[in-house]
Write a structure and sequence with these properties.
The structure is a homodimer of 484-residue chains. The first copy, chain A, is of the alpha+beta class and 484 residues long. Chain A has helices spanning 4-19, 53-59, 86-92, 98-103, 115-125, 138-148, 152-156, 168-178, 183-206, 213-227, 287-306, 313-330, 338-344, 347-350, 371-375, 413-422, 431-438, 469-483; strands at residues 29-33, 67-71, 77-80, 109-111, 130-132, 158-159, 166-167, 230-231, 236-238, 258-263, 265-266, 275-280, 402-405, 408-410, 443-445, 448-452, 457-459.
């Protein structure tokens, strides 16, 4: 947790932003519901507690079953939570009071968790608007619906103005703050990056044929738990990189495959990292693997070079697509004019996802506040094309943005067959070559986390994970030699 | 997953048991709602998926968003889940159909997940009773309430007969089956035990002063993820063992303390283990630590020796309390007749928890089906005393029961002060000695998992974790020598 002044300042800024949305006396309340424990097997056997990210941002405290109300008219702040009893002390040790805890993030008024119901009912009876963020968890959905008398569907939807919905005004104010990282946050992001790089280094050093994938995932997850909160998302480790989000790790590592490892760590303050590397399972790339790998590495580098304030990430994605297709043309996979193919959206066949996303307290930062509100400027909109249309971060970059740079090339048999049948590529794809040579290739993705600085960008973490194919092979050979 | 015959047989047995609860034509349906993904940070960023334990028991499948209905009158079985589309194939790879998956656990009729609403509405309109188990997760609570038109509170409560509540009849039938482990389950329990013992061995070998507790927890969790599903409950690792459930690991390991490690693993099939050991942080017990430690080790051994079919675990707990107090009398902590003190419940001051609980697919097996229904025979009831009253498993033991044997002695300053002020011990406690010598002692707990066999009991796992104080010190010295 940061110093309490940080949270006091952030809440003050939030209230100032919300003041612009309505005249004084008409602004209402901003309600924040922190997370409760999430049962895994049974109610009292919970997953490792993870606080709601916006709660962490404005209150810092990583304890379950807290709520808070900010009065946007009077500026009054109040926290709702329950003190412990003797039974709790026996099981959990002596605990500070809620009043002491709330003072630690700068709130002086407290009440019991149950008092929230009456306070909100009184506010609603007085005709006051109650702003809230869309809930991420089922408990929060139930709690909001029950507190406010709305349905699950109503509280999940974000809309402006009075209504039974999550507050567009509050969502936009929160996004405007969380999207630009403060210096103290950047330091935390670098710590999360350091853990993520260690997590990846341990994995790279452990790859060898004949072992089960899960054994490597366990090592990686262990690093994130030893040094931080845990993984920032379920680790992707697969010899079928063409499957973008594979969470099964039950395969034996086979020789000659490409292994995609997409994984990141959250540090103890809740900040995320997210890296992807792709390794030859035998320690050496084949010539064909190396050709495609080098394209992805060069796309990653191009995107990083273009990343600077004032540039839209939409344009960076597009430039990366042009490079990718012109290089796939060199391999004979693209036919005709590569730029024309790029404008037609042919890159989506090989890379059906976007170049990157915001990262912060969430690895897809603020995804539940609305992907378009987070990732797009008011004058931008989503492309209908596969790939570009999945771009989560399109905005004009400003210093303090933290984004992923993650191009990939995948050969997805089902998608190739679909495009071929539908003629989606308008004659730009050499299906004969794909079918002859690439259907069992798999996929490659290479991802770094990038901070937009005042005059450019820098990658996160203490040192970059090896990415050039020679460097990757050398690192794997070194680990292999040590293992003997 | 086991062979499909296992699940077919179990469901058949369940339907036979339910047939005894009502005449044919009046039995109704048994509804099972599997778990869905549990969001951690945002909706699409979920914790590692854990299926509902009763779902695992009757259907085996560890995939989210499945439901099933067993018709207790016709014997018809139907599974509800959604097939994947092209988008899913791109992100998750080619997937078998729901029909193929359901055939894998022996169900031939399938429908979409959404079809469940109409099927249940039709059954309800036809006046058929719908039996269901009490939900463990918020989603399942919401889903049941919404499917059946009941409130959260109604679906959470277990009651017999017609009503808006979870079905006591179904709960009892499920408990009667899950409480007695089949041979194939015992093999899985041993695997979970092996992982748990490795998890503990890694921890014991890593203990040294000056490092942060979290670094050991990460190693332990990593083992459980590399070899199984993960931890069977959040790891307890604390230098304040007197705090029974401490989940913070932010302390530096100090010399001269006792470190309680209570942790277990779940194997990939979902079966749990649960062990506790207590280590001297400096590698050697002090004389005072060793005295108390030996009492706990002897209590653990006594309980194991008494564990056999026909004996109630309630009586084992009581016998253990008598031994504990007579030995605490030898140390001067108990005054007067130790047996009389035991009958007054004085052991609860030093051990405010029960001797053990059932273990299976849940580490506190079936806790959400109702602790008394699971742990107590019809003619038994809970003691009002602290300690014995917290005993989760009191039943007369039968072969196939899997229970924990986990005595402990703790010196809890707040509880000691409370008892002293209230005179709860009726003159049997030497508070002067406790206050002079034991308020900073901490706590000790020693736990094994025990299978009740045909003629006695055996401990789980391939080999027992060192428990006698000399053996513990020797193991720690060996690890320390290797580290140099």
């Amino acid at each position: 947790m940061f110093n309490k002044e940080v949270y006091i300042r952030r809440r003050k800024t939030l209230m100032e932003k919300m003041a612009a949305t309505a005249p004084e006396g008409k602004r209402g309340l901003a309600l924040f519901i922190g997370n409760v424990e999430a049962p895994a097997q049974y109610k009292d056997n919970a997953y490792k507690f993870r606080q709601d990210s916006s709660w962490i941002y404005f209150f810092g405290l990583q304890e379950p079953r807290y709520a808070a109300v900010l009065d946007l008219d009077s500026g009054e702040e109040k926290v709702y939570a329950d003190d412990v009893d003797m039974d709790d002390i026996v099981w959990m040790g002596p605990q500070p009071s809620v009043a002491e805890i709330a003072a630690g993030f700068g709130v002086s008024r407290t009440a019991s968790y149950g008092a929230l119901d009456a306070d909100l009912a009184r506010a609603a009876a007085g005709g006051r608007r109650i702003h809230f963020l869309p809930p991420s968890r089922y408990y929060n959905t139930m709690k909001l619906a029950s507190l406010l008398g709305y349905t699950y569907e109503e509280v999940a939807k974000v809309a402006p103005g009075e209504g039974k919905h999550a507050s567009m005004e509050l969502v936009k104010a929160v996004i405007s703050m969380r999207l630009v990282k403060e210096d103290i946050e950047i330091a935390e992001m670098d710590k999360a990056g350091a853990i993520g790089q260690k997590q990846h280094s341990v994995a790279r050093d452990a790859i060898r044929t004949g072992i089960i994938e899960q054994s490597i995932v366990g090592l990686m997850d262990g690093v994130t738990l030893a040094e931080g909160w845990g993984v920032s998302f379920p680790t992707i480790l697969t010899q079928h990189g063409e499957t973008l989000h594979n969470h099964l790790h039950d395969k034996i590592i086979e020789p000659g495959r490409l292994m995609v490892i997409d994984a990141g760590a959250e540090n103890n303050e809740g900040y995320a990292s997210d890296f992807t590397r792709t390794y030859p399972t035998s320690g050496k790339f084949t010539a064909k693997q190396r050709d495609v790998y080098q394209i992805v590495a060069d796309c990653n580098e191009l995107a990083f070079e273009m990343t600077r304030p004032g540039v839209t990430y939409y344009s960076v994605h597009k430039a990366m697509e042009h490079l990718m297709l012109s290089r796939l043309k060199d391999l004979g996979i693209i036919i005709g004019d590569a730029d024309e193919a790029a404008e037609l959206g042919v890159a989506g066949l090989f890379m059906p996802h976007g170049l990157g996303h915001n990262i912060g307290l969430d690895v897809h930062d603020m995804e539940d506040l609305g992907e378009d509100l987070v990732g797009y400027d008011d004058d931008q909109k989503r492309s209908p094309l596969l790939g570009l249309g999945n771009l989560r971060m399109a905005r004009k970059l400003v210093p303090g943005n933290f984004i992923s740079d993650e191009p990939g090339i995948y050969f997805i048999p089902a998608l190739i067959a679909q495009w071929k049948a539908a003629g989606t590529d308008k004659g730009h794809v050499n299906y004969g070559l794909l079918e002859k040579e690439y259907l069992d290739f798999g996929g490659i993705r290479l991802e770094d986390d990038v901070l937009v600085t005042a005059d450019g960008a820098r990658r996160t973490g203490p040192c970059r994970l090896p990415i050039q194919p020679d460097d990757v092979e050398e690192a794997m050979a070194r680990a292999n030699a040590l293992r003997r």
